[in-house]
Amino acid sequence: MKIYPVIMAGGSGTRFWPLSRKSRPKQFLALAGDGPLLASTIGRLPPLAKPKETYVVCGPQHAAAARRMVPSLPKENFIVEPCARNTAPCVGLAALHVAAKDPKGVIAMLPADHHIARPDAFRDALSAAAQLAEAGSIATIGIHPSRPETGYGYLKLGPRLAARAKGKARFQAHKVERFVEKPDVVTAARYLADGNYLWNSGIFVFRADVILEEIARAMPVLREQLEVIRASLGTPAYAKTLKRVFPDCPSISIDYGVMEKSHRIAVVPAEFGWSDVGSFAALSDVREQDHLGNVAEGDAMVIDGRNNVVLATKARPVAVIGLEDVIVVDAGDAILVCRRDRAQDVRKAVEELGRRGREELL
Q1: Which of 23, 116, 146, 228 has the most CB atoms within 10 Å of its CB?
Q2: HEC readout, the chain
Q3: CATH architecture of the region 3-275
């Protein structure tokens, strides 16, 4: 079975300002290791998938940088969206490209900005999901929850299925009974105790023809727009057609637009050290901490403090004294200071800078 990974690299990552900017989004940052998240995402795929069968979807402002970052991919494997329209149009456009090469090709849609600590276990789970997809299911990978997390969506498990990664460990798959929105802390604690809920990783695996069928059923307007684009594939009219049609596609996530309406969803429960690295607060999960739970990098000092994230440049020291649960980030031209429990609100600083016309900092 041949797997075609498609890496979704179109996000802006405003929760990582001031490190992330329009020209340098989250997936281009080395948040969880020495290399950018995008390069790490592609680097963990072999030998399950080959570079010549791997695609990256990104915007025009990031295409050149993405190509430089992952030179192993053929130039034609970079699918450039004229504008951001969320993940449903992104998935549909990618499926057109794969279907043109292999109509029943198995696509693995992968976010570009996640961290995975155990790539071998990840590939095993992806292989199991691909086997379900080959048989006609839309498979996702669910993460066993380790805490009552309120920042993730959940999947409620339905009846059991069977799946096995070829030559690897056995996985017990399930139908997905329903998708669940991000819960409050009491509900999240109940999900954890129940044992029948998994974190939604945002990783989906399906055949190209199957996802296009599901888009046609759930989103007929998008289906018509994709058909116009499909007719131009491989012709000189493609770029002009894409630029004309794609901006009018409905801006909606694949979860809301298709997955929550489909009866084909199956899930492979797995554990492979997954983090969506959703905010600066998550860096404690993927970076080294001291004995008091502090993450301090660059010329950063934490004195008499606990559970802080302090990121400094090498150009000037940053000292945090006697504080707990704060985030301090010095990007050279801008500084962020916030409580750790407000890490999701960093985007509000980006919005305020936009209102003030400070484009040079965005």
Answers
A1: 116
A2: CCEEEEEECCCCCHHHCCCCECCECHHHCCCCCCCCHHHHHHHCCCCCCCHHHCEEEECCCCHHHHHHHCCCCCHHHEEECCCCCCHHHHHHHHHHHHHHHCCCCEEEEEECCCEECCHHHHHHHHHHHHHHHHCCCEEEEEECCCCCCCCCCEEEEEEECCEECCCCCEECCEEEEEEECCCCHHHHHHHHHHCCEEEEEEEEEEEHHHHHHHHHHHCHHHHHHHHHHHHHCCCCCHHHHHHHHHHHCCCCCHHHHCHHHCCCEEEEEECCCEECCCCHHHHHHHCCCCCCCCEEECCEEEECCECCEEECCCCCCEEEECCECEEEEECCCCEEEEEHHHHHHHHHHHHHHHHCCCHHHC
A3: Alpha-Beta Complex (3.90)
